[in-house]
Amino acid sequence: MTWSATSDPMVSIKNVYKSFGSLDVLNGVTLDVMKGDVICIIGPSGSGKSTLIRCINALNDIQSGSILVEGLEVNDPNLDKLELRKKVGMVFQQYNLFPHKTALQNIMMAPVRVLKQNKKTSEAAALELLKKVRLEGKENTYPGELSGGQQQRVAIARSLAMQPDVILFDEVTAALDPETVGEVLQTIKELAEDGMTCILVTHEMAFAREVADHIYFTDRGIIVEHGPPETFFKDAKDPRTREFLSQIL
Amino acid sequence: MSYKTDLPVMLPVKPRALEPFKSLKKRHILLIAFLTIVGPSLVFAQTGEFEKSPLAILLDWTPLLLSGFLFNLVISFGAMALGTFVGGLLGLGQVSLFAPTRASSWLVTQFFRNAPWLVLLFFAMFLLPFELNIFGFKLPLPDWFKAILGLSLPVMANVSEIVRGAVRSLPSGQWEAAESLAYTRRQTLWLIILPQCVKRMLPPWMNLYSILTMATVLASIVGVSEVMTLTGRALAAEGGRTDLLAPFYGLVLVLFFIYCYPIARFTVWLEHKFSVIN
Q1: Rounded distance, CA A174 to CA A156, Å?
Q2: pLDDT tens digits for B64-93?
Q3: Which of A85, A100, A144 lies at the smallest CB-CB distance from B182?
Q4: In this structure, which CATH number among 3.30.565.10, 3.40.50.970, 3.40.50.300, 2.170.130.30 belongs to the domain A11-98+164-248?
Q5: Rounded to a whole number, what is the distance in Å from the CA of A213 to chain B's nearest CA?
Q6: Rounded to a whole number, what is the distance in Å from the CA of A225 to chain B's nearest CA?
Q7: CA of A192: how far to CAs of A36, A163, A183, in Å?
Q8: Which of B143, B102, B137, B110 is nearest to B124 (CA)?
Q9: Partners of A31 in beta bridges
Q10: Are the beta carbons of A110 and B181 separated by less than 8 Å?
């Protein structure tokens, strides 16, 4: 089976079940993401949103079902995880920058060490990425000296440096001070406009409404409802979705 | 910024101030030297019973005792170097993903960590042959070398725990970030995890070194000619004069103190520095 970027979904999740011990987290989730799509997953805490996207790059394994990333089966014991992770980037809630490396080193280290790219080329690309996330001049700064929002933008640049085909954003603004949330969301928005495929778990409803092509609402490990933002936010059908939206909006 | 108000308000949490350094002053050091060496000699000087004062005798023997102390330091360097190297590997074994490696490293670590140092030293001394036969070459195993081997065992086990503890103390997000950037586990360990661990490992490692240095005198029990052995022999050569005991052993105490105290101070300073930064 060959995967085609134009006709097949970039990420195809089918009937995925996942539990931590006796706790069922995902109870049969199915969703497709096409190339260039921006999808937002929203839902109450503990509904399995983060687990779902962590399964996409195999940070968590699944019990049953199938996750295809560009035709690569994630739920395969012989999966080449490195191959998968070169395709899938990830940005975390806690940034997880490497504190002993400068911003520039954080960004260029993986291309040099993992993709075996030329050091000069990687450095030039990393500086370009820093400019893209509006952090020119911060290349020699250590993460500890940057604000949360700046660290998160370095983390986004670090992920982009690997030239992934899809990026997972796991509640990336949840740990930020309110005044720095905007700068990170702006960066993500620009990525989305550039055509990057993005899967976001977020609590920023206004942002989801603005950038998402499609919104998924999860509760207790299933997708309760989904649709394009206009219809999703205006006339949600399921009572659980309505209740959630009424609490948040 | 702060506001004056009568209303009950929640104040921002302030980190508890670090305790100020307690530091030895010159007078403390003088006092210690006096009590251990000079004092007893002065007491003697007033009695004037023998020809030579203990202080003069002590001065005669000092070069020999110093050379013995240097030997202690050699043993401490050797045991620390060997123990750190093997213990480092053992510590990495303890965080291995391969269960048998992990289990056996854990077992070895626990075994040697919970064994008395002196017993391990006896084992190394009396179970190792006095020379090794390697392909017909006879390689002598001197006592001091066996002492290094014996003392390196507990060092190894403790270093192993220091490494394991440091690796485990890093937030799991560091591993996950590295994983999601397609680093191999080995790259993650060497490029991302271990460099961050060095800072965390340094203070306990130096603490261990200090303890090891003081434990090198155990080698006297198994006949290595280090400072304690030489002190005993010097005292015997002087005819077992009881008034010499305090100055001689006092000198040994002071030697160790002069060597170990700065290490302890430096360790405290490092801990202080890192706790402020992190």
Answers
A1: 15
A2: 999 999 999 999 999 999 999 999 999 999
A3: A85
A4: 3.40.50.300
A5: 25
A6: 29
A7: 8, 14, 14
A8: B143
A9: A13
A10: yes
Q: Is the pTM of this model over 0.80?
A: yes
pLDDT digits (tens, 9 = 90+) for B1-37: 445 566 666 666 665 655 555 677 777 777 777 777 6
| Contact residues on chain B for A114, CB-CB shorter than 8 A | 181-183, 187
Report chain A residues whose CB lies below 8 A from the CB of B178: 98
Domains of chain B: 34-42+55-123+142-277 (1.10.3720.10)
Pick from B192, B193, B173: nearest CA to A94: B173
Q: Single out the residue of A212, A153, A207, A206 nearest to residue A180, CA to CA.
A: A153
Top residue of A98, A145, A159 to mutate, by most chain B CBs within 10 Å, is: A98
B256 pLDDT more than 90: yes
The answer to whether B198 faces chain A, any CB pair under 8 Å, is no
Closest CA to A101 of B181, B104, B273: B181
- Angle, helix B227-237 to helix B54-94, in steps of 10 degrees: 160
CA A42/CA A201 separation, integer angstroms:
6
Pairing mode of beta strands A88-91, A166-170: parallel
How does residue B278 score in pLDDT terms, banded at 50, 70 and 90?
very low
Q: How far apart are CA A96 and CA B170, in angstroms?
A: 11
DSSP string, B90-149: HHHHHT-SSHHHHHHHHHHHHHHHTS-HHHHHHHHHHHS-SEEEETTEEEE--HHHHHHH
DSSP class of A76? -
Q: CB contact, 8 Å: B136 with chain A?
A: no
Alpha-carbon gap, residue A18 to A192, rounded angstroms = 29
Helix (H) and strand (E) counts for chain B?
A: 11, 2
Q: To which H or E segment does residue B200 belong?
A: helix B194-215
Q: Which residues face A41 on adjacent strands?
A: A201, A216
A144 contact B CB<8A: yes
Sign of CA dihedral B203, B209, B210, B211: positive
Among the listed residues A88, A61, A66, A91, the one whose alpha carbon sits nearest the alpha carbon of residue A152: A91
What sign for the dihedral angle of Cα B214, B220, B222, B223?
A: positive
